[in-house]
Amino acid sequence: MNNQKQQKPTLTGQRFKTRKRDEKERFEPSQFQESIVQGLNQTGSDLEAVAKFLDASGSKLDYRRYAETLFDILVAGGMLAPGGTLSEDMTRTEFCLFTAQEDLETMQAYAQVFNKLIRRYKYLEKGFEEEIKKLLLFLKGFTESERNKLAMLTGILLGNGNISASILNSLFNENLVKEGVSATFAVKLFSTWIAEKDINSVAGSLRKVGMDNRLMELFPANKRSCEHFSKYFTDAGLKELSDFARNQQSIGARKELQKELQEQMARGDPQKEIIVFTKEEMKKSNLTEQAMISIIWTSVMSCVEWNKKEELVTEQAIKHLKQYSLLLKAFTSQGLSELSLMLKIQEYCYDNIHFMKTFPKIVVLLYKADVLSEEAILKWYNEAHLAKGKSFFLEQMKKFVEWLKNAEEESESEEEETD
C-alpha cells in the first residue's frame, strides 16, 4: 500500500503585466467629474491652458468611458440631467462654454479646444457628435444666451467639417419645432456657418446626409411652405439660405412631376390629358417652358426599355418620339424652349453611346413634326451647341443644315420675286 500523501491539484495561469502607459485611474462619474472640474477651475478662462490640461489628462483619466460626462462639463459646467438642467448633487465649474462671452471669437476659440481634443483622442469623435445631438434635443432647457453660444459653436464646427450635418436631425424634434425653438436656433447656426465658410459649404454638407430637402421641417406643418421659409430667413438676413431652400424645393417638385409623367406614359394615358395635367403643374410650380420641356424629354426617354443594339435603337427611338411629338410640341412655343430641347437631345445622345448616330434622325423627325424650327436648329449649329460630342454631332448635322440654309435662301428669293 502506498502511504505517500496524494498531491492536491492546483490551478495555474499566466499573469499579465500592465504597462504603465495603459494604466488609467478608474473613477465613478462623480470622481471623474471632480477631476475635470478641478483642472478647469485651475486653468480658468485661458483656453490654451484648458486644451493642454485636457490633452495631458487623457492619459490618466478614462475619456473613452466617460466621454458624455467630459463634454457635458466642457459645455455646461457639470453633468446634465434629462431635459438639459444641471445635476444638483454634482460638482460644477464656472469655466465652460455656457458661461463664456457670447461672441464669435470666443466660440471659435472653444471650437479649437474641442478640435484639438478630438484630434488627440480620435475615439472621442463619435461621442462628441452624439453629445451635440443630445444638446440640441435639450435646447428648451437652456437660456437664450446658452442657445446662441451653442448655435455659434455648432455652426463653426459644421463649417470646418469637424462634425456631420446629420446632427441637425435633432432640430426636427416635434416639441422644438412647435415652440419655434428650432427655427430661431437655425438662424444663428446657419448665419455662423455661412460666415465661417459659404452657402456652398452648407449645400454640400446637407446634400451629403440627405438633408437638403428637409429644411422646411424646421417649421410646424401649418407653416411649412416655401413662402414662409423664404420670408423668415430672408428677414433674418439669410437670403442665400432662402434661395437654396427654394431651389431644392423646385428640384423636389420637378422630380415628383417627372415621376408622375412617367407613370402616366406607362399607363398609356391620352396625350391631351397629359398636356392639360402638365400645364397645370407648370403653373402651380412656377416653372418656365424651358424647364418644363427638359422634364418632359427626360420622362419620355425614361418610360421605355431601350434596345442595346445601335442599328435597332434608331428605329425604336423614331417610333417612340413620333408618338409623343404632340406633347413635345405643346411645350416648345418659344425659341428658348426649342433650344433647350436641342441641348437635351444632344446631351442624351452623348451620354447614351448607342444613341450617338440617332441624333440627326431625331432632330429631322422633330423638325418635320413642327417641334423644332429651322431657326432653333441653325442657332444650335452655329453657336449654342454643347461641348459634349461637338465635332461628331456637327458633322452629322452638316448636310441637313446646308439643306435648311438653301431652303431658306430659295424662300427668300421667291419672296423677292413676288415683291
TrEMBL record:
InterPro entries xrefs: ARM-type_fold, eIF5-mimic_regulator, HEAT_5MP1_2, W2_5MP1/2, W2_domain
TM region positions: none
Gene Ontology annotations of biological process type: regulation of translational initiation
Region: Disordered, residue numbers: 1-29
Highest taxon in the source lineage: Eukaryota
Domain W2: 247-414
UniProt keyword list: Activator, Transcription, Transcription regulation, Translation regulation
Gene Ontology CC entries for this record: cytoplasm; membrane
Record's protein name: Basic leucine zipper and W2 domains 1a
Organism: Labrus bergylta (ballan wrasse)
